[in-house]
Amino acid sequence: MKKASNGLSVLNKVAVAKELQAGVTHASLVLKYETSEGTVGRIREKRQQWLDLDIECMDKKRKRIEKKKTPDEIENKLLQFINTSREKNCIVTGPILQAMALRIVKDTAGQEEFKASNGWLEAFRLRHHIVTRVLSGQRAFAPVEHAEDYKANTLPEILSQ
């Protein structure tokens, strides 16, 4: 009868990588962490990736490394756009964020396969703790002239940075 193995958290995988680097045997790690030989083998193969990982900014219980599909440059420009828009009391909706992301990607070379899907938008909002709120009253009202001015002057200025 085969023993069920534990899925290791990121924290444990980093610990296994450090122990492998220190010379601890493969078999002893399998027993210590109650996991499969294949798991320890895969950690050994990607040992440097696990050792280079900054676990301070990650969820310790997470079992896999998050695959980043959007480059930091694009996300930083998008966050700058959001902050500037909020400072000017402009409403930023999901479709506006998606259109802005596509525009930034178009201006940035090498990201032709990027799609600003609803899934990407949701993940972006979760990553950066962006919440959607319904505005009412005077804050919900934005004159059309301001929108045209924003698109003509402010938006190109943000994108050029």
From TrEMBL:
<dbReference type="GO" id="GO:0005634">
    <property type="term" value="C:nucleus"/>
</dbReference>
<feature type="domain" description="HTH CENPB-type">
    <location>
        <begin position="62"/>
        <end position="134"/>
    </location>
</feature>
<dbReference type="Pfam" id="PF03221">
    <property type="entry name" value="HTH_Tnp_Tc5"/>
</dbReference>
<dbReference type="GO" id="GO:0003677">
    <property type="term" value="F:DNA binding"/>
</dbReference>
<protein>
    <submittedName>
        <fullName>Tigger transposable element-derived protein 6-like</fullName>
    </submittedName>
</protein>
<dbReference type="InterPro" id="IPR009057">
    <property type="entry name" value="Homeodomain-like_sf"/>
</dbReference>
<keyword id="KW-0238">DNA-binding</keyword>
<dbReference type="InterPro" id="IPR050863">
    <property type="entry name" value="CenT-Element_Derived"/>
</dbReference>
<dbReference type="InterPro" id="IPR006600">
    <property type="entry name" value="HTH_CenpB_DNA-bd_dom"/>
</dbReference>
